[in-house]
Amino acid sequence: MTKRPGRGTAGPPPGRKRGPDGRGPRGSAGRDDKSGPGAARASGRNTGNSPRPQGGRSDGAGRPGTKGSAARRPARGGMVPAARKETPRKETGTGGASAKKPAVKRPARKTAQTKTAQRKPAQKKAPAKGASGRSGAGRAARSGQGAGTGPRRGTGGSGRPPDRGPRSRTPFHRRDPLKRLNVALLVVAFVLSLFAGRLVQLQTIESGKYTEQAMRQRLQEITLPAIRGDITDAQGHPLAMTVEARAIYADPSLIEAGERQAIVNALAPTLGLNPATLMKKISKPDTRFVYLAHGVRPDQARLITSWDLLGIGTLPEYRREYPNDSLAASVIGFVNDTGKGAAGLESSMNGVLAGRAGWQRVEISPEGQHIPMGKDQKRPSVPGRGVRLTLERDLQFKAQEAIEKQVKASKAKSGSVIVMDPRTGELLAMASAPGFDPNNYAESDKSLWGSPLVQEAFEPGSTGKVVTAAAVMEKGGVTPQTPYTVPDKLKKYDVVFRDSHPHPPERLTFAGVLAKSSNVGTIMASESITQQQLYQTLRDFGFGEKTGLPLPGETPGLLKPPAEWSGTDRYPIAFGQTVSVNAVQMASVYATIANGGVRVRPTLVAGTAGEDDRFTPSPAPERERVISEKTARQISDMLEGVTTEEGTAPKAQIKGYRVAGKTGTAEIVNPRCGCYDGGGYTASFAGFAPADDPQLVVQVVLQDPERGSHYGGDAAAPVFKDVMSFALQSEKIPPTGSRPPIIQIHARD
Q1: Fewer beta carbons within 10 angstroms: which end of the chain, N or C?
Q2: Is 598 left (phi over 0), alpha (psi -120 to 50) or beta?
Q3: How large is the angle between the packed helices 260-271 and 275-282, nearest 10 degrees?
Q4: Could you tell me which of 421, 420, 463, 402 has the C-alpha nearest to residue 713?
Q5: Are 357 and 346 within 8 A, CB to CB?
Q6: Distance in angstroms (rounded) separating the CA atoms of residues 514 and 634
């Protein structure tokens, strides 16, 4: 096997004829006018060979280890000149390369001659010490580069194509700097175009969107609360008023996480807030404004401001105050923490009282400061209108004091007192117990926040007998002297009806039936009219419909039409059972009797007052004649007999005044069984004075009194006397001085 020459030797090109000694003839093909290895490197010309291809690589010229141009390889397809075969020899030099080192088999390299090699000749280098004078081979051996003697395609001489060996790796060559600069400029231009496109998008296409977002971040809207109108009594005394206060707010974006607990510890006990809720509010992300408390007293707000807490501030606002504490709380109601009416008139007339809140939009810096020259828009608030009631503060106080005292004494579940002017329908007092303090409504039971005077319905019992009396006298031909033999019980169909207490049969006039409050006698008198006539009279007096007072949650009571009555319903309805009313409805019935048979709808609101204190009265209430004046006068005289010693309410008498009224003791339905057994009683008394010139009506209702008597004459009549006596004095109503009529209780045979 023939060994390939090692690096630094130049083998004969393929197809070249050899001499008898195996070497090519030495000629001038490999030499120029100069000798040495530098000559072959310096020569850039091709002598006698085909032109060198552009960009190609010369295998001999410019490389050490070749001799002259004999080592130069032609381009593909060219003729190969004769070359001298050099015998490898041992060379010693600084590189330490040995010519006798076995050659390594490797494929022939195909290289290209660079422009630099064509233009610039190689520098001469002195041969290493101990070299034979041909240092090119030594340098080739040291550099590890061989001339490569493998056969090449396209060489001439033998006419046969040479063997095709594996290609060598093309060395790295730097590109043209101008091209690199152009590419870099293109990349920079592309990046800049992206930035320019994004800039155009932000400043033109989407500029409005981002401008709006930026404005929202800076712009803060502050509510300008309206001054809520006052609620006053008939003389202008404030029952609910608006006072100056402060709102506490926070800017969570300015509060560092480490400072939050200290702020909570300072504000929560001072403002009476829940610490967990407060911490949640001041920790809201992406929030510049949040309310922490409303209605804070100015002195408390000044204390909080003095602490100089970062992100905590105050705003001026108003707070609702009730100077009389629980006085008329069930009527007035209260305003909650958000500034809205939540009960009573504060709720039902919120639109009138509250006015219209304004707003102010200001620009706030990231530090929370108001930007002076920034955007500032403002819509001023419109104050609410004041509401003047028909209630009288002093009379309201007396009524409330009396009913609270009796509820406590009798251990009743609840109680109410209404004082009314029968001529105008004005309600002068509306008291209920137990009550609550609207200044601290959150500390009371929610069940007390309502208006029981219109929200709670009850069966009127014997106080409803005046309606039956009016019906039978108007439509049944009954008179006060009409006699009845009244037993203590009466069976109708399969139901037995009884009087309040057992007694032998009595011969009573109809006036006596009413005075003694006999259920059996009332049933007997009611049989002179039809069911429809009884129903219509009840409707005329206001049963089954709302009074129209501006109080939330009013009940119309219960009154079914005759078509829905059972066979025996008409009998208990006649003496005030199986129907229900609210306290104002029942007071209106007695006001109609006292007003000569003309019903005037109850009135609570006298009018409203604007910012300039100009008073606007409410429309006049509706008036409707229900019964004739004669019938009303006769019923009034009959009711005076109730307060006599022979009647059921002698405790309602007032010295010097003629008093007319009626007691009521109604059974309460037991919700457990839907029956009257064990349900308790409703004790009531309704009356007016002076009886011959009625100017005041007072009604008292006690629900389920457990201590003492549960009869209206014992539990409710004393409260009536107490309140009516005070009302007559406060209203400066003198006694008439007339003598009461003689009421015939027992019928004459």
Answers
A1: N
A2: beta
A3: 130
A4: 463
A5: no
A6: 12
Strand 623-625 versus strand 598-600 pairing type: antiparallel
Q: Which residues contact 187 (CB under 8 A, 6 or more apart)?
A: none
Encoded amino acid at 312, one letter: I
pLDDT per residue as tens digits for the range 273-327: 999 999 999 998 778 889 899 889 999 999 999 999 999 999 888 889 999 999 9
- Classified as helix, coil or strand, 737 is coil
Which positions ≥6 away from 536 have C-beta within 8 Å? none
**pLDDT value of position 225:** 78
What is the number of alpha carbons within 13 Å of residue 514 lying toward its C-beta?
34
Asked whether the CA dihedral 186, 189, 195, 199 is positive or negative, the reply is negative
Peptide bond connecting 690 to the previous residue in cis, omega within 30 degrees of 0:
yes
CA distance 711 to 83: 151
Annotated catalytic residue within 58, 330, 410, 462? 462
- Residue 495's φ and ψ, nearest 5 degrees, are -115, 135
Based on the residue annotation, tell me whether 410 is a catalytic residue of this protein.
Answer: no
| Token pair listed for 189 | 């231009």
Q: What is the 3-state secondary structure (H, E, C) of 453-486?
A: HHHCCECCHHHHHHHHHHHHHHHCCCCCCCEEEE
CA distance 239 to 407: 24
Q: From 23, 169, 64, 46, select the one nearest 118 (Cα to Cα).
A: 46
pLDDT tens-digit series, residues 238-256: 999 999 999 999 999 889 8
> Is 694 within 8 Å of 595 (Cβ atoms)?
yes
Tokens representing 739? 């003598």
Cβ pair 24, 18 in contact under 8 A: yes
DSSP 251-293: -GGGS-GGGHHHHHHHHHHHHT--HHHHHHHHT-TT-S-EEEE
Largest CA distance in the chain: 187
Handedness of CA 636, 641, 643, 647 (dihedral sign): negative
Report how far residue 689's alpha carbon sits from residue 639's, in angstroms, rounded to the nearest whole number: 11
Structure tokens at 638: 């009959």
Cα dist from 48 to 25, 51, 82, 117, whole Å: 16, 9, 10, 20
pTM of this structure: 0.69
Nearest to 416 by CA among 554, 584, 600, 666: 584
Please give the sequence-ordered ranges of beta strands (E in DSSP) within 528-640, or none if there are none: 598-600, 605-609, 615-617, 623-625
Residue found by looking up tokens 């000044």 in the block: 302
The β-bridge partners of 420 are: 427, 697
Across residues 251-262, what is the average pLDDT?
A: 90
Give dist(CA 5, CA 101) in Å, integer. 10
DSSP 639: H
Report residue 179: phi and psi, to 5°.
-65, -40
Q: Would the pLDDT of 96 be above 70?
A: no
Helix (H, G, I), strand (E, B) or coil at 212: helix
Which of helix, strand or coil describes residue 50? coil
Three-class secondary structure of residue 698 per DSSP: strand
C-alpha torsion 635→637→641→644, nearest 10: 140
CA 433 vs. chain centroid, Å, equals 35
For 291, the token pair is 């309310």
Q: What is the pLDDT of residue 68?
A: 40
The torsion region of residue 50 among left (phi > 0), alpha (psi -120 to 50) and beta comes to beta
